[in-house]
Amino acid sequence: ESLTDTAFLDVARAQSGEGAMELVLSFLQSEVRAFTPGHAQALDAMAAAGLRFALEEITNLDMDFGALKHLGFEFVKLDAPVFLEGLPAAGGDVPASDICRHLADFGLTVIVGRIEDDWLLARILGFGVQYGKGTLFGGPTHVPADVLAEQAAA
């Protein structure tokens, strides 16, 4: 929806520049496969406004990642189990040991999610992953009611 919301793009443009909030929008691989030239134009405008993009819920590496980088994609998010199993690609399966290198060739950075324990973290770091998220780093927390009340009053 953000791709077609001109008000969202106006806010992004107003926030761009030095000291701007860094915002990364995530898109499912299945959604990106269905992008039209109009979507590409919208991404180009958002990238020009300083937004960056992430590809998530990857099922295979059979995509034009160079074109995605050109559109403003910076990150590829993979869940730990998917990352460790490796991913199919046009030329055959890419094992976990090569996924980071494969995507880095296109200027993309891997973020591995669902890291739930130290053993999994150690295994993933051994493959060159620089960014991770998961319950090992802390679970979700509730926003205190007084904070919500302050924001509503503002």
Keywords:
8 helices; 154 residues; 5-stranded parallel sheet; 16% strand; single chain; alpha/beta
Give a written overview of the molecule.
The protein is an alpha/beta fold and 154 residues long. 43% of the residues lie in helices and 16% in strands. The chain is built from eight helices and five strands. The protein has helices spanning 6-15, 29-33, 37-48, 65-71, 80-85, 96-104, 118-125, 145-153; strands at residues 24-28, 52-56, 73-79, 109-113, 131-132. Strands 1-2-3-4-5 form a five-stranded parallel β-sheet. Helix 4 links the parallel strand 2 and strand 3. The longest helix has 12 residues, at 37-48. The model has no long low-confidence stretch (mean pLDDT 87).
- Order of H and E elements: HEHHEHEHHEHEH
Number of strands: 5
Strand content: 15-25%
Structural class: alpha/beta
Distance between the termini: 26 Å
Number of helices: 8
Largest beta-sheet details: 5 strands, parallel
Instruction: Categorize the overall geometry.
Output: flat
Helix content: 40-55%
Runs in which pLDDT lies below 50 for 5 or more consecutive residues are none
User: What value does the average pLDDT take?
Assistant: 87
Rounded radius of gyration (Å): 18 Å
Q: Give the strand order, joined by hyphens, for the main sheet.
A: 1-2-3-4-5
